[in-house]
Specification:
about 300 residues, alpha/beta, UDP-N-acetylmuramoyl-L-alanine:D-glutamate ligase, 9-stranded mixed sheet, binds 2-keto-3-deoxygluconate
Length: about 300
């Protein structure tokens, strides 16, 4: 069994240096929240596996090569000869404004199915990482996400759901309806403050949604607060962690880094304070550099931004 299993759509992110309409260079990067988390966990020396469907062409090869180079296990990836790789254009409109355009409808990644995931779930993992993005991609991907949550929870795997709402993929109401079937199987739920009511009653405040989640059997609710750090709720109460102060260069991927850090801390057996510390530390590494995941730390680099080590 691996330490962490994740699945979803690995995207080719084409980054611009300026406005798309004026043209210029596009540089391809591996992206996708689940791929980012797999890389974050693997860089810290845990065994991470990425599953799902990847196009059987040069772009798919590019995605797998990036993941392989980061030491992510790809044993359970399914290649799709008929569907293209999902694309994401990340337009640097101005220094402070980035915009996303997706071309991912009908992609290989969006066609992930229960059958695709059976071998990976059978092989087992200590942690299963899921995001609301996968649930938004297609009916089959939503069912695969729900099935994986149920199957892993039954096997005693820690299931982590990161809400990751993408307004360009679905409405808040559609997300809330779909995630309601998944969140009850999760032990750890990660959301930014504005995403929290997508896993609870519409319009309900933070404490109400947290109480609903703890009632449903979720053991830890992590609320990401960006530059203000994060809050973690458990049945014992709430704990707040400040963000690690850094110069923010590019916030894309910071939430995934946060989740990877939290789950790495879990795998290391850290207490809640240590897990949160590692989460905000990984977030800081990614906020402080360009790219979704490129600046994630190796284990020997954690202490550069003051993370605590086990023992
Ligand atoms: O979390 C960063 C993601 O936004 C990015 O990597 C792409 O997964 C992605 C998405 O669907 O937006």
């Amino acid at each position: 069994a691996v330490d962490l299993l994740t699945f979803g759509e690995a995207l080719v992110s084409l980054r611009t240096a300026g406005p798309i309409v004026t043209g210029g260079a596009l540089t391809p990067h591996l992206a996708g929240a689940e791929a980012n988390v797999a890389v974050g966990v693997a860089r810290l020396g845990h065994r991470a596996a990425f599953a799902g469907r990847v196009s059987d062409d040069e772009l798919g090869e590019f995605l797998l090569r990036q993941l392989r180079a980061e030491g992510v296990s790809l044993e359970h990836v399914v290649r799709d000869p008929d569907r293209p790789a999902g694309l994401m254009f990340l337009e640097r409109r101005t220094a402070d404004l980035t915009r996303v355009i997706y071309q991912r409808a009908g992609s290989a990644g969006s066609a992930v199915s229960v059958e695709d995931l059976r071998p990976a779930l059978a092989a087992g993992a200590r942690v299963l990482h899921l995001t609301g993005i996968t649930a938004a991609l297609s009916d089959g991907a939503r069912e695969a996400t729900r099935w994986a949550a149920v199957t892993a929870a039954r096997a005693g795997t820690l299931v982590c759901l990161d809400v990751n709402h993408r307004t360009k993929l679905w409405s808040r109401d559609a997300a809330r309806a779909a995630l309601a079937d998944i969140v009850g199987h999760a032990s750890v739920v990660v959301a930014s403050a504005d995403e929290l009511d997508l896993v609870g009653t519409a319009g309900a405040d933070e404490l109400t949604v947290v109480a609903e989640l703890l009632d449903r059997g979720v053991s830890t609710v992590l609320v990401k607060l960006g530059g203000d750090g994060a809050r973690a709720y458990t049945r014992e109460g709430v704990r707040q962690a400040a963000a690690v102060p850094v110069t923010a260069v590019d916030t894309v991927g910071a939430g995934d880094a946060f989740t990877a850090g939290y789950l790495s801390g879990h795998l290391d057996g850290l207490d809640l304070a240590g897990r949160l510390r590692r989460a905000v530390t990984l977030g800081a590494f990614v906020v402080g550099g360009h790219g979704d995941w490129e600046t994630l730390p190796r284990r020997d680099e954690l202490s550069l931004l003051n993370d605590v080590q086990p023992g």
